[in-house]
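An example makes the point: we print one protein in full, the chain in one-letter code, the fold tokenised, without further comment:
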Amino acid sequence: MMEEEETAHVETYWCDQLSTQLCRLCANSDYCMLPIFEGDGVEQEIEMKIHKYLPIEVSKKDAVAIHICYSCSSTLNAWHLLYQNALVADEKLKKMVSRICKKQGGESESTSDTTEPRKQTKDEPETITDGKDILSSGSRYD
């Protein structure tokens, strides 16, 4: 009977150690852990970020660790910021492309610049504006 009580005590000890001193994400031990379900963990929305970005389930009732180390917290928060910034950038770029396409598609032939380009003199430095300059035969200074 004494041996069973001792085994139960050891198991309880290790369960407590597991849930409070090991990171739920990397399983490493750290002297400074962030609780997932209280305090800073709640303020930083750690539970939501884990559910959103990682293929694991966390719960207050977990028998496994309910803390994460600051390294994993930092990585998770950085990933969340990258995710949010990518969504904003995607929307911004799509609007820019849409605006440019509308502007180009909305111009009629009569409103576009139809004047002949000015010919370059021999004293001006040579600039290439498109590939046609390189491929054309004859002198550019005709």
User: Anything to note?
Assistant: The domain at 2-104 is CATH 3.40.1800.20 (His-Me finger endonuclease fold).
